[in-house]
Design goal:
Elements (H helix, E strand, L loop, with lengths): L5 E4 L9 E5 L6 H13 L2 E7 L8 E2 L5 E2 L3 E6 L9 E6 L6 H17 L4 E10 L8 E5 L2 H9 L3 E2 L7 H9 L5 E10 L5 H15 L8 H13 L3
Parallel strand pairs: 2-7, 2-8, 8-11, 9-10
Antiparallel strand pairs: 1-3, 3-6, 4-5, 6-7, 9-11
């Protein structure tokens, strides 16, 4: 019997041309920081929790003293009419720990994206390097030619090589669901938090989504990410 993630809905929002943006912990916590910032700025509504049997057996303690187990959640944002589409944002404190788990969790999330008729999947992350540029360069890969032209025009570098974790598997599997896929990675100095990479990716997302994303108070968003991922230290 195939082991599957558990999915719990709190709401079933009606969305127009939704785009799913992934923000799970990875290199430099770049994806987590970008998405946590978007959730805060737009007061996104949580509507679904996902519990994977492949999460680490660990819990973290938040500032109220509560234990928080590994979880991924979906939030929705109703955007202005000029935006490319409404948003579904994926945020959580853990990725699956095995190759099988990564693929199973990706399939679960893509099934949900298909259910809500998402037109595109956007994944984010850090690209580890010893000497990041100033400001950090952002690299892209996509399965959609129109998006590639857009990213080239705004000066992004085309990504080569491999993309690990959910940032890679979600985009890689998106085409099997008939969805467009985009991956954006920002340069991060090895072993450091990618604040500036997150800032540059938010700028790119503002253009891609045709949606202004305020960059103020990014450090406050990072405090929330640290607590969510590592617990109160």
């Amino acid at each position: 019997m195939k082991i599957r993630s558990l999915v719990k809905f709190f709401d079933m929002p009606k969305l127009e041309n939704p785009i799913l943006v992934e923000g799970l912990p990875g290199v430099g916590l770049v994806a987590s920081l970008v998405v946590r910032h978007i959730i805060g700025k737009f007061k996104a509504n949580r509507f679904c929790d996902i519990k994977s049997p492949f999460f680490k057996p660990v819990a973290v303690v938040d500032r109220s003293g509560r234990l928080k187990t590994p979880i991924n959640s979906l939030y929705y944002i109703k955007t202005p009419s000029e935006a490319r589409g409404d948003l579904i944002v994926l945020y959580g404190n853990s990725q699956a720990t095995t190759f099988i788990g990564q693929n199973e969790l990706s399939e679960t999330i893509l099934d949900l994206a298909f259910k809500f008729e998402c037109i595109a999947i956007v994944t984010l992350g850090g690209l580890s390097t010893l000497t990041p540029s100033s400001p950090p360069k952002v690299y892209y890969t996509t399965n959609h030619p129109e998006y590639a032209l857009m990213f080239e025009k705004i000066g992004l570098r085309r990504l080569s090589g491999r993309v690990y974790g959910m940032a890679g598997t979600l985009v890689g599997l998106a085409k099997f669901k008939g969805m467009q896929g985009v991956c954006l990675l920002g340069e991060v100095k090895s072993g450091e938090i990618g604040r500036e990479a997150a800032r540059e990716i938010i700028k790119v997302l503002s253009v891609f989504l045709n949606l202004h994303i305020d960059l103020s108070n990014l450090e406050e968003s990072l405090d929330h990410v640290r607590e969510d991922v590592f617990g109160l230290i």
